[in-house]
Amino acid sequence: MDSMTVSRESTGRRIGTYGLAVGFFYTVNFSVGIGFLNLPYTFYHAGVLVSCITLVVIGFFNVVTSLWIVEIMSRAQALEYRSSCNKFYNNSVTRSDNQDLMFKNEGDDEETTLLQTMPEYEIRSDRKFDGPEMSEMFLGKAAKFIYLLIMIIGVFLDLWIKSTVAATAWSSNIPLSLGIFSECTTDDLEGVSIHPEGNCWNNYALCIVLFGLIVVPMSCLELSEQKWFQVSLSVMRLFVILTMIIYCVAKKSMGSNPTHELSHLNFSQTRDDGSPTPASINWISGSIAGWLAGIPIFAFTQSIQVNIPTLTQPIEPKKRLREVYSAALLTLMMLYIALGIAVASYFQSSVKKTATLGWEPLTSSDHSIFLRIMAYIIILFPSLDVTSAYPLGVTVVTNVIHSALGHDTPGSPSLHSRGTRMVYRVVCALLPLIGATFATQLDTLLRYEGLLTYVVLWVFPALMQYSSMKLCKRVFGLGPRVCQSIRTTDSDAQVVTRKRGDEWKTPYSTAFSNNWTVSLALVFASFLICGSIAGIALN
How far apart (Å, rounded) are the C-alpha atoms in residues 390 and 226? Predict the structure, then answer.
C-alpha cells in the first residue's frame, strides 16, 4: 500500500488563501500598532546610537523567535501525522502491506520499525496549531493555561487601548457640536480614568459606537475576506511613515527648527518627572531612565510571535514563509530606525510622546491647504491604523479560544460553522469597546501586563523550540544513517534527504535553530523583563 493513502485528518474547515505579497502586508499590519509613534521620543531621550543598537538586537530576536514558531508548527504537524500513522497501522495494516510507511533495518522488531517512519514536516492550510495547543503538546497542560491566560488578557487590553485611541482622536479632531454633543479637547481626555457625564463624553461615547460599527463587522470576516481592506491600510501605514520621515528630513536640510518656529505653542521643556529636556538630540547615548523606559516600545513594535499561527494558515506557498516574515520584520525595523532618527533630530526638544502630535500646528489656517491635509492625515493616522488592527486582534484571540476549547482539533468539523465563529468574534469584539466606554487610562495596568507578555513573546517560543527539537529527535531518530522521504506541499513534492541526528530539522529551520540560540534567547528575555521593571521604577 502506498504511504500517501494514509488518511490525514483535518478539521473539515476550508479557508480562503492568499499569496506572498498579501502575506507580507498582513504581517506589517499585525506588527505595526500605535506604540511605534513613541519611538522618536525614545530616540531623543535614550540617544540615537543606543536606540538603534537596541532596536536591531531586539529585532534580531523577534525574527528568530517568529521563525521558531513556524518550525514548531511543522513539528507539531509531523507528530500528529505520526500519531495518525500509528493508529492506521495498529487498526488496519499488516506488516507486509505497510512497507512504504517505514524504514526497516535487519533485526528490527515491528515496534522499532514503525517508529522509523520519516517525519513529514509541512504546514497544512486545513490544520492550524495555535500557541496554547503547541504549549500543551510540548510543555504540558499547565503551560497551556499560562499561555492562554496571558495572551487573552494582553490582547483584550490591547484592543481596549485601540478603542480609546480611535475615540479620543475622533472626538477631539472631528467638529461635532450639536445638542448633547460637543467637540472634545485633548485636555478633556488627558489623565481621566473614569468617564464623567458631559457633552464631550457623550461625543466620546458616540465615537466608540461609530468605531464599533466599523470594526465589529470587519471582525466577523475571515482574513482572506479582509485582504483588500488590510492591504490598503498597510500601504497607508507605510505611506504615512515615509511622509513623516521625508518631511522631517526635508525641513531639517532647510535649516528649519520647530522649537523656534512654533515657540508660541509652548512646547514642554521638561520630562514627565520634572527633569529638564535636553536642548539637542543625543547622537550617542542619553539618559539611562529614558533607555529603560523605551525597552517595551522597542520590543512590542516588532513582535508578531503570537500572531504567527493565524498569519500562516492562509499563506501560499508555505515553503516561502521564512522569506515573508523576515522581509516584513526587517523592512519595519529599517523604517522604525529612519523614523526615530528623522523625527527626533528635527523636533529636538519639542518632540512629543506620540510623534504625530508634532504636526498639529500645521492644521491651522496659517498654512497651505496641502500642508493642512497632510497634517490631518498624519494626526488621524493612529485612529485609522487601529481600525485595521482591531479585527486582526479579534481574529487572533478568538482563534486561540477556539483552539483551547478543542474546536480546531481533528474530528470536530461540526464546530466550525461560520455562525459559531461569528458569535465568538462578536463577543470578543464588543467586550473591549464596552470597557473603553467607561475607562480610558490603563497605563499602569499595561506596564505590568507587558511584563507578562514578554513570557509569551520570547520565553514560550524558546522553551517550545527546545522541547520540540528534543521530542522529534526521540521520535524520529531511530532510522538508518541516511534516509529519504517524500515531502508533499500544496504546490509540489520533493525528496528530502536527512542524516541521523538531523531528524528535528524542518524546511523552515535556520542557522539559529539550535540549543545555543535558545539559551541566548532565554537570557535575553530575562534581561528585557529586568530592564522593563527598572524602567517602571525609574519612570
Answer: 12
What is the separation of C-alpha 476 from the centre of its chain, rounded to a whole number of angstroms? 32
225-284: per-residue pLDDT in tens?
888 888 888 888 889 899 999 999 988 888 776 654 444 444 444 444 444 455 566 777
In what helix (H) or strand (E) does residue 341 lie, and over which residues does it extend? Answer: helix 321-347
For the chain, how long is the longest CA-to-CA vector? 89
Inter-CA distances, 123 with 44, 70, 537, Å: 43, 8, 44
Q: Is residue 317 reached through a cis peptide bond, with omega within 30 degrees of 0 on the bond before it?
A: yes
- 360 with 375: CB under 8 angstroms? yes
- Grid coordinates representing 168 are 479620543
Do the strands 482-488 and 493-499 form a parallel or antiparallel pair, or are they unpaired? antiparallel
What is the distance, to the nearest Å, from the Cα of residue 293 to the centroid of all Cα atoms in its chain? 21
CA 231 to chain centroid, in Å, comes to 16
Q: Give the tens place of pLDDT for each residue, 40-61.
A: 988 998 888 999 999 999 999 9
Distance CA 446, CA 452 (A): 10
In angstroms, what CA-CA distances link 62 with 197, 387, 392, 457, 525?
A: 44, 25, 19, 8, 11
pLDDT under 70: residue ranges of the chain: 1-16, 84-119, 173-199, 257-281, 406-417, 439-449, 477-502, 539
Instruction: Give pLDDT, residue 13.
Output: 46
